[in-house]
Amino acid sequence: MIVAFSVTPLGVGEEVGSHVAEAVRVVRESGLPHRTDAMFTSVEGEWDEVMDVVRRAVAAVEARAPRVSLVLKADIRPGVTDGLTSKVETVERHLSA
Which part of the chain is the Thiamine-binding protein domain (predicted)? Predict the structure, then answer.
């Protein structure tokens, strides 16, 4: 399963980078395959472990902000591993053809 999510602290002003960094730190320390871009962090693993990482990432931001917004999208595809890499490689292969 791959989950793409973003955690946004609310009520802390416009500078939220340090708050978001705490969520990303949780993901990086999880040991699960992940990628972070300008809009989302994607993490790959089994349902329980991925959702636990999302829960802890939200909690890390929640500890510093009075309100938190979570946007989450999941690709639930049993038996597929390394989807973070293989999905991008497939698109790149089609682009180079």
Answer: 3-92
Q: Which residues contact 51 (CB under 8 A, 6 or more apart)?
A: 3
| Number of Cβ atoms within 10 Å of the Cβ of 5 | 20
Question: What is the C-alpha to C-alpha distance for residues 22 and 17, in angstroms, rounded to an integer?
Answer: 9
Mean pLDDT of 73-80: 91
Cα gap 57→44, rounded to integer Å = 14
Tens digits of residue pLDDT in 79-96: 888 888 888 888 999 999
Residues shown for the chain = 97
Check the CA dihedral 39-44-46-52 and report its sign: negative
pLDDT tens readout for residues 20-33: 999 999 999 999 99
| Residue 1 · residue 74 · CB < 8 Å | yes
